[in-house]
Amino acid sequence: MKTRLSLRIIFAGVLLLLLNGCATSPQTGGGPLVGTWTNSLGAVWTIKADNTFEVVNPKRHIWGNITVAGDTVTIQETGGKAAKGCHGPGVYKFSRTSGNTLAFTLVKDSCKERIKNVTLAWHRK
After folding, report:
1. Which tens digit of pLDDT belongs to each residue from 40-95?
2. Closest by Cα among 73, 99, 75, 71 to 86
3. At 65, phi and psi to the nearest 5?
4. 19 by DSSP, 3-state: which?
5. Is 125 helix (H, G, I), strand (E, B) or coil?
6. Chain centroid to CA 83: how far?
7. From CA 83, how far away is CA 123, in angstroms rounded?
8. 20 to 30 A Cα–Cα from 40, which one of 13, 14, 89, 103?
9. What is the pLDDT of residues 16-41, one digit of tens each?
């Protein structure tokens, strides 16, 4: 009987350690945003699992980092040919309107060109 109780206690301890590890591990990758997306302006946005991105459109080639927290994404360019006033972060809410469609709603961004592009519907390429 003591052996059974000891095994239960050990099992419960291991289970708690596993649950704690899952709860405290950082989110990996852009999750639901990962993939290659295109919009009606011809921009191609590739979001990688390492939280980096690259945007190519007829006027620009930009790359940077994203941070995803729940349904909010922060976009920060780190290189390329950004438009005037587009060197700070942009914050957006996102939703997957279907398996192949991604939509963004502006939270805060001072970059007019990024707002114009990001808030369009994006379709998986």
Report:
1. 999 999 999 999 999 998 888 999 999 999 999 999 999 999 888 888 999 999 99
2. 75
3. -125, 150
4. helix
5. coil
6. 22
7. 23
8. 89
9. 334 444 333 334 455 789 999 999 99
CB atoms within 10 A of CB 88: 14
Q: Residue 22: what residue type?
A: C
Q: Pairing state of beta strands 90-98 and 72-80?
A: antiparallel
CB atoms within 10 A of CB 25: 8
By the 8 A CB rule, do 33 and 94 touch?
A: yes
Residue 14, Cα to own-chain centre: how many angstroms? Answer: 32
Task: Please name the helix (run of DSSP H) or strand (run of DSSP E) that holds residue 118, with its range, or none.
Answer: helix 112-118
Residue 108 is encoded by which pair of tokens?
């805060």
Placement of tokens 């590890």 in the chain? 21
DSSP class of 25: S
The rounded distance, in Å, linking the Cα atoms of 17 and 97 is: 36
Q: What is the DSSP letter of 5?
A: H
For tokens 């994006």, the residue is 122
Beta carbons within 10 angstroms of residue 35's beta carbon: 16
Radius of gyration of the chain (CA): 20
